[in-house]
């Protein structure tokens, strides 16, 4: 069986690999997935997983996205409480509607990076809150 790389268009055939470990990363989180198989381009290193391996690789990535969302959800709640803000008061400060924080903290909605960044800043410098309210 011969495979060509669709990524770089080299004339070389892709090279078969079996049972390799890959690291998947998301937002600083990492997971190792063992036993993946597929084809690799010798020129550009592009990898084409077999169907079962592709599914496992994608599932590991999805899991990291959920882990990151959970971590962020807890972080937002911790900082809001530390600042002594109710969910409504926090939403008034950052916009997004009066339910925004209960939705962030239940993990229903991902807050904008601007909200997360503001809260991280206030976590380090809580005295700046009085400049905002
Ligand atoms: Zn290639």
Question: Key terms for this structure?
Answer:
47% helix; single chain; 5 helices; alpha+beta; elongated; 133 residues; three-stranded antiparallel β-sheet; 434 Repressor (Amino-terminal Domain); Ubiquitin-like (UB roll); binds zinc ion
What does this protein look like?
This protein is α+β, with helices and mostly antiparallel strands and 133 residues long. It is built from five helices and three strands, in the order E-E-E-H-H-H-H-H. The protein has a three-stranded antiparallel beta sheet with strand order 1-2-3. A hairpin with a 6-residue loop joins strand 2 (29-40) and strand 3. The chain is elongated, with a radius of gyration of 22 Å. It binds zinc ion.
Note the topology.
Layout: E1 15-26, E2 29-40, E3 47-49, H1 51-82, H2 87-94, H3 100-105, H4 113-124, H5 129-132
Antiparallel strand pairs: 1-2, 2-3
Helix pairs in contact: 1-4
Bound molecules: zinc ion (ZN).
The site of zinc ion has 8 residues, from loops.
Question: How would you summarize this macromolecular structure in one to three sentences?
Answer:
The chain has 133 residues and is of the alpha+beta class.
CATH architectural category of the largest domain = Roll
In angstroms, what separates the terminal alpha carbons?
67 Å
Number of strands: 3
CATH class of the largest domain: Alpha Beta
Order of helices and strands: EEEHHHHH
Kindly report the spatial arrangement of strands forming the biggest sheet: 1-2-3
In CATH terms, what is the fold-level topology of the largest domain?
Ubiquitin-like (UB roll)
